[in-house]
Amino acid sequence: GDSVTQMEGPVTLSEEAFLTINCTYTATGYPSLFWYVQYPGEGLQLLLKATKADDKGSNKGFEATYRKETTSFHLEKGSVQVSDSAVYFCALSDRDTDKLIFGTGTRLQVFP
Amino acid sequence: GAGVSQSPRYKVAKRGQDVALRCDPISGHVSLFWYQQALGQGPEFLTYFQNEAQLDKSGLPSDRFFAERPEGSVSTLKIQRTQQEDSAVYLCASSLVGSSGPVRYNEQFFGPGTRLTVL
Fold this sequence. Notes:
The structure holds two protein chains of two kinds.
Chain A lengths: L2 E4 L4 E4 L4 E3 L1 E4 L5 E7 L5 E7 L5 E4 L2 E4 L9 E3 L8 E8 L6 E3 L3 E6 L1
Parallel strand pairs in A: 2-12
Antiparallel strand pairs in A: 1-4, 3-9, 5-6, 5-10, 7-8, 8-9, 10-11, 10-12
Chain B lengths: L4 E3 L2 E4 L5 E6 L6 E7 L6 E7 L2 E4 L8 E4 L6 E5 L8 E8 L13 E2 L3 E5 L1
Parallel strand pairs in B: 2-11
Antiparallel strand pairs in B: 1-3, 3-8, 4-5, 4-9, 5-6, 7-8, 9-10, 9-11
């Protein structure tokens, strides 16, 4: 079945460092891809999405590009802030069912 | 406007008790999803409604789990004879249009979740 694999955390960075969180997927067909973020004490929020190959999703300085050839959707940010500390989830959505399949999450800790 | 709300936010149950978890989706949202999130894991799909119709319940882990959405709005997830392995955060999400709509995908908006602890 469909699945998502993302790098294990925690990822610990200093403020203004470059961030990469790797995500790869296995799916039949052509899923939509997402990054969700869960800030401490809050619910899941959509961070960005891409619906077809070569699309780039972006929001709040974060970017991810849908790479069909490598089945990847890596999350990047050029300069992280303390306020970016959260758990990040990569997910895919099957085009027929809409249900989301999540990775296990990556905790990001940013220190001043 | 109001987002997705869930109640109770926290529930402690003794093993063997029945529990009912409520989800109030965003008004007008057609699709409603339930997910289970174990500690340190990503959410896992349980079931999906389009209006009042339960179109997919393939993720329900056993016949002790039952979900309903009788009027196509509020949904209740019921767990009978709770077990310790049922301890998790139960997330509800809603989206505006179902998979048969003109747009192939709509964003799922998540509620804060109900943290269930079974002793």
